[in-house]
Amino acid sequence: MKKYFIQTFGCQMNVYDGWRIAAMLDARGMQKTDDIANADVIILNTCAVRAKATDKVYSALGRIRLIKKPDAIMGIVGCVARESGSDAFKRVPDLNFVLGPQSYHKLPEILENPDMRLLNIELSGLEKFDEMPQMESSPLVTYVPIQEGCNHCCTYCIVPYTRGREISRSFADCVRDVELAAQTGAIEICFLGQNVNGYKYIDENGTTYRLSDLIKAAANFDTVKRIRFTSSYPTEMTDDLIDMFQNEPKLLPFLNMPIQSGSPDVLKRMNRPYDLNQYMDIVHKLKLARSDIQISSDFIVGFPGETDDDFEQTLNIAKTVKYINSYSFKYSPRPHTAAAIMPNQIPENIKSKRLAILDAQLNENQRAFNESCVGKTLTCLCEGLDKTGKHLVYRTPYMQQCIVAKPDGAPHDIAEIEITAANKASLRGKIID
Prior knowledge:
By secondary structure, this protein is an alpha/beta fold. 35% of the residues lie in helices and 23% in strands. It has helices at 12-27, 51-67, 79-84, 87-91, 107-112, 127-131, 159-162, 171-183, 211-219, 239-247, 264-270, 276-289, 308-321, 348-372, and strands at 3-8, 31-32, 41-46, 73-78, 97-99, 118-120, 141-145, 147-148, 167-168, 188-192, 200-202, 208-210, 226-230, 254-256, 294-296, 298-301, 327-330, 377-385, 391-395, 401-405, 414-422, 427-431.
């Protein structure tokens, strides 16, 4: 039996793509392996959002080519494939295929013709969702992509180039995927999209469907206990979606809503068309809709032209909103983006210094929120055993990791857990019988 190895980099959309690729190879009678040296097909499922992410892919390819079997088929799929195109073959001559994020359903062509080289980086739409086989079982947390691409064209972001402009899947197809997931083991549904709350589908009768409609539909399945979505754009946080946090108890009280910078000047250069008052108004509406809601964010420091005062404004917004879990990065110039050729690029040492200061504030926020949970009882979802095998890992409604003692019997997928201790990274708790 032939074996395949998949390594996934990057976002939840890539994780989902990895699942579907694995399902396709399983359907062809192949077996998954974690041993690269024993694999007949090697696939790197890639992310290109930052230069470091791309560098990781090519570093991994350099290591893999030294240990793989001579006749193993090796290739890359996803955003780095789209970014690099035919240059990938020049950088790594051992590659057999380079497939963009909307083309990985073309893999059978290379499996049937292992001596060929296959390059397909076209932004061909949503065909992959129709052509890939469905998964026979679903993880407890199942991702359901509802749209691909982004129309916002932030000046730092390569996504419109690697994933294309926004395309929303049909409402019926999305609901079908939720139903299949609910029937095959899913307890939590996470709707995915590069601009997930920009989802908009108009059917043949002229009926318009939004993300709020998908949330309502998912909540109708009894086996679905938790619903969330990522990643959202502030100006797409419409009132109908905000109302969902008040009216649908299965929707988790947690939202990732990236602000990227607290400086109006930097936001303008980023082509993020909102001001701080608009952003804070959305935060206020969310908290009115559900008082226990918590928010996370993404931040970029050292964007071209960012002054010390700009950075202080970013630090202030982090203190004001008190994000409970955020991702922060140094600005990384990407090809095909306007910011890469902007004047006043910030030196690395200044970016590193600012990132350390921002991270300290974000870590303080996260620790304070985690400690505020001590003494509370939260409904949590089991993720399985920790690395030691002696404890179970659960996820709270706020996506915190909570460690509990392994029970004698089989663990419950959903459990009420009293939080007994906390640090910046995680919680400790005990299951309430």
